[in-house]
Amino acid sequence: MSTLQQPWAGPQVDAALAADIAVRRPRGFDHRLAGHPLMSIDAIAELGQELGPDSISAEDAVKPLVTAEPAFRELAAEAIADRIRSLAAADSWFTLLNIEQERAYRELVDELVEGVAERAGLDPAGLRRRMGFVFASSPGSVTPAHFDIEHSLLMQLRGRRRLSFGRFGSPEVREREINRYWTGSSFGRLESMPEPVSELELGPGSGAYIPPYTPHWLSNGEEASYSLTVTFFERSNEDESRVQVLNERLRRLGITPKPYGAAPARDRSKAALMRWYAGMRRREETSRSH
Ligand SMILES: [Fe+2]
Question: Where are the beta strands (DSSP E) in 168-238?
Answer without folding.
Answer: 195-202, 206-210, 216-220, 225-233
